[in-house]
Task: structure prediction
Amino acid sequence: MKLISRFALLGLLAVPMIFGQKKEILEMQRDILQMQDQVRSLQRSQDEKMAAIQVLLQQTLDAANKANTATAVLEASLRDKLKDQEKNLVVPVAGLGSKVDQLSSDFSGVRESVADLTSRLGKLQNQVSDLSQAIRTLSAPPPPPPGAAPTASGPPAGVTSEGLYNAAMRDRTSGNADLAIAQFKDYLQYFGNSDLAPNVQYYIGEIEYLRGDYTAALAAFDKLLEAYPDNIKTSDALLLKGRALVKSGFKAEARTEFDALIKKFPSHENAAKARMELRALTSVAPARKKR
Result:
């Protein structure tokens, strides 16, 4: 009897435990079902994405195949066009080469003709120069007779300022320095107050400078600057005087002349030349003695 009672008691105690285990089993089954649903959802999403990727891959392959086909067609078309152009250009290029050869031959002929024409022009120019010289000689007044003395009013009979000036300039141009200087001095003696007198005095100094007689050149330029301080040849005289001083070794006085030229004629082309001369002077020499 006691044994039955014990079993009955155990049965009553086991009932809550069984119910508790069953509840846990149900919850576990519910969790498992949810997990299965989530796995199926993930699988379905993955399948959809894989399908989309496959579609994109297929479209890419199709586009690549089309591009390859278009490239092949274009390449074939270009090849055919190049062949046609080559066929069309062979004959014209050959003709062009022939024309170039012909033009080269014609140019050689033209060059020979130009050389011949240049030679003839040179001869003609020499003839014109000789003719001009003869005309100037005939146009010049005759020299004064031997022993002719100056008249009471000035030059010898038959000597004019224009004729004497032209004769001196002609000898200057021809390189007859001594004769040109003599005629220029005669001009200054007879026509020292004329408008061309400053030019004549300058040309005397220029001739002396060019043939290396710097002492005579400086004397001529000093006389010009003293007798005719403001004239068309003043800037030229200052420039050549400065150069003559440099040639003579008087760099300090040369610098003074160049500075005077720049100050008096700042925008003249001779002022630019004077500035170049000043830059070339790197040392100062002893001062020139007064004559």
